[in-house]
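Assess this one:

_____
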Amino acid sequence: MEIDFLQYKVRNGDTLKSIASRLGMTGEELKLFHNAHCKKLDTIWFENLNEVKSILVPLDFKTEKQKDQERKNILPLSQLSDSFFAKTYNVSEAFENPFEAPVHIEYTIDLDVRKDKNKNCYILTYSQKNFKSNGNPPDDKMGGLSIACMKAIMPIDFTMSELGNINGFADHQKIIKNFADHRKDIEDFYIGEVTQKYIDLFEQNIADEPFFLQQFQNTLLFQTLFPKMDWFHKKAEWTEAFHFFQNSFPVQCEMIIEQKDQGNDLLLTVLKGSIKESCSSQEIMRGIRINEPSAELALGDITLEYTTHKKDKNLLQVKGHTSLQHEDEFIHQHTITITQG
């Protein structure tokens, strides 16, 4: 058993306060420490140490302020930095519900985050590639068309605040132009009335800037990979809004945080939340709020796990999980693992 204290022999004139001050403690802190480690008969109740022969003192006492500072030293910075993200991450997502076969997708994303001093924000250049579904490249026409359309507009530049929030496109017109430049090549390869309608709709969607931005912001990928930097510094419970489905509304969740030292300079930050909002699971799945009190409130949970480097302050891995239940049975689960490439 590790001994983290020693026995101090009380001298004439010693008080709890005088001994504690030499240790960087308050008298109350020293009393509580001694009483927590001593035998019941040796408990100290008063400031004076009359008839007290010895007192147990800590070998390495740290004040709450010192503990808080040590904690801050290993946490990611409270504001975004150029070095927080790696250049490449490999992503694995799984979707499950009781009514369909599970879907598993994999892909790679490339990131470049840099400070724009003129606009006082960060620019995130984002692109994705190597898409696979259930272990294989898409072999269906619509899957290939969807990837071709997204590839035509990559990379996309987003603006990010110093707190880590993605709040807009750096150049929305560039996205529209990139697709226009590649549209003919896509139409030459993918022909047919159905594909023509898809291409028209895709072009219409990217032209609607607020709508298209939400298509990224509402995904579990973006909600997980791009955290608010102040999340890592939370201590008490708080409320945060999350999208459980991409095209649904955000749902308020009550969050708690736990941080664990993983050794080898790694820190694990776990955020757990549960839905605390008056809405039903059906409303969330359909993305439509009903202006009437729901008889059956939604039961749902979200867990986010961040593995960061304590010294380099960068993001090594993220795991996210959302679950929606109805009458104690799950009706939807979404899991994502994002690992530095």
